[in-house]
Structures are given as C-alpha cells and as structure tokens.
Amino acid sequence: QVQLVESGGGLVQAGGSLRLSCAASGRALSSYAAGWFRQAPGKEREFVARINWNGGTTYYADSMKGRFTISRDNAKNTVYLQMNSLQVEDTAVYYCAAGRLTPGQYWGKGTLVTVSS
C-alpha cells in the first residue's frame, strides 16, 4: 500500500504561482508512476500531468502545457507540481495519484487551489 498526502494548496491571485507537493509513505515512490489530477466544482475529475518512475518522461494535458511542471524527488518520496500563470479556471481540488504503470492505483485526498481574479 502507498499512502499519498498532498500539500501546498491555497488562495492565489490570477497570474500567480503555487507549488503542490505529494508525499508518499508505505512503499518507495520510485517504484511507481505518479500524476496529478484535478476536479473543479461541478465538473468531472480531469488529468493534469504524469511522470514516470524516474522522472525521465512527463506528459501534460494541453491546457497545462507551458504553465505547469511535474517533477519528483525519489530520495524524498515526493512528487511536485509547479503551477505558474494560474488562471481562475485552474480553481479545483488537486489530487495526487500513483500506480505501477500509470497513476491511478493509489490516490491522495486532495488539496484545494483557489485562484482569485
């Protein structure tokens, strides 16, 4: 079992930045691919970004490309999501996920990001 805990959410003005962290425990995160998803009020959960086990491959949803950066530090058992140029539409609960091949087997409880205009 892998337990995931997100942190770093909060209130930020449009155009600002936040860095989310996802700390893993239970097993070494280096064995898993990881990713971020988000769910805005009244909307379905959507994919944000994912990263392979060693950080060598990343993939982003089109609307996040160039603004968000996913990274990981396996020595710290942590995955990050750097979010720049935040927009009001980025307001959502952000979830961390991990899995053997693709993220989704294990989920955190989420951290709320609110972007004000």
Please tell me about this protein's structure:
By secondary structure, the chain is mostly beta strands. About 0% of the residues lie in helices and about 50% in strands. It is built from no helices and 11 strands. Strands 2, 4, 5, 6, 9, 10 and 11 form a 7-stranded mixed sheet that branches. Strands 1-3-8-7 form a 4-stranded antiparallel sheet, with no helix packed on it.
Index terms:
mainly beta; 7-stranded mixed sheet; 52% strand
What does this entry show, briefly?
The chain is an all-beta fold and 117 residues long. It has no helices and 11 strands.
Please indicate the percent range of residues in DSSP E strands (runs of 2 or more).
Answer: over 45%
What's the gyration radius in Å?
13 Å
Tally of DSSP β-strands: 11
Helix content: under 10%
Mean pLDDT: 96
Class from helix and strand fractions: mainly beta
Secondary structure tally, helices: 0
Q: Name the overall outline.
A: globular
Uncertain runs are none
Order of helices and strands: EEEEEEEEEEE
What is the straight-line distance between the termini? 40 Å
Largest sheet: 7 strands, mixed
Oligomeric organization of the protein chains: single chain
